[in-house]
Amino acid sequence: MTKKPIHIHIDNVMQSILGYIYWKDVNGVYLGCNQMEAELANLNSPNDIVGKTDYDLPWKQNAKTLIETDQRILKNKLSEELIELVIVDGKTVIMLTKKSPLYDDKNNVIGIVGVSIDITDRKASEELQEIKLRRKQSYMESVLQHIPVPIYWKSLNGIYLGCNQEEVNMLGLKSPKDIVGKTDYELSWKCIADVLRETDQRIMSTLIPESIIELPKLANGKDAIMLTKKSPLYDSENNVIGIIGVSIDITERKRAEELQKKLEIQEE
Hints:
Layout: H1 10-16, E1 20-25, E2 30-33, H2 35-40, H3 63-76, E3 80-88, E4 91-103, E5 109-118, H4 120-146, E6 151-155, E7 160-163, H5 165-171, H6 193-206, E8 210-214, E9 226-234, E10 240-249, H7 251-267
Antiparallel strand pairs: 1-2, 1-5, 3-4, 4-5, 6-7, 6-10, 8-9, 9-10
């Protein structure tokens, strides 16, 4: 037994779409919309929007921008996806909108057709996450700057990308920004720059962190003994993009050890 085809009126389809749908003529006059759009505009039915413009609707404050977009689409005959803001009952609604030229049966452009989805809640959630991320980054930056040992990171070419305040103090600089773009050949320990560079390249090549003793000359002219841990620096896709180092000044400890050894030898 052959089933009879189910006939669905196009208007029923239009009213069932979960989005705000509307169409206007080339002068920005509404030709129709679905029930959701009518309710957004505080109208009783889709028929009530016919003959109105955006200046007659609750979002009249945004009308100029909306109409400029429509005119651009009509001129270019190209669809656009964009974010639009409409103010309804004093509240700003954020819409993800797709607008396209509207054609007649002879392929003449007679207006525009648009469909919008309310993404206000999603945007609010994204903005909240962004605020949380910025706060976390600010917090981590503060922690980094207050760690009481020098920390620094360089590019594959040995160019400093950043450091913390303790490294700044050791170099006699004013701010962590002052180290960006420099190499070891431009700093107070330039006399050991070749050794430092060789170590960095070996670690980036083998991908194996190393603990080493480094003997830099500080900005105040004093020689220091640093116990340094260096590791490859990775980006978010796990590619090696440089080197990161953490150093501890063990100058006084080493001198105390040497003095103790001398005293032990004298006692013998």
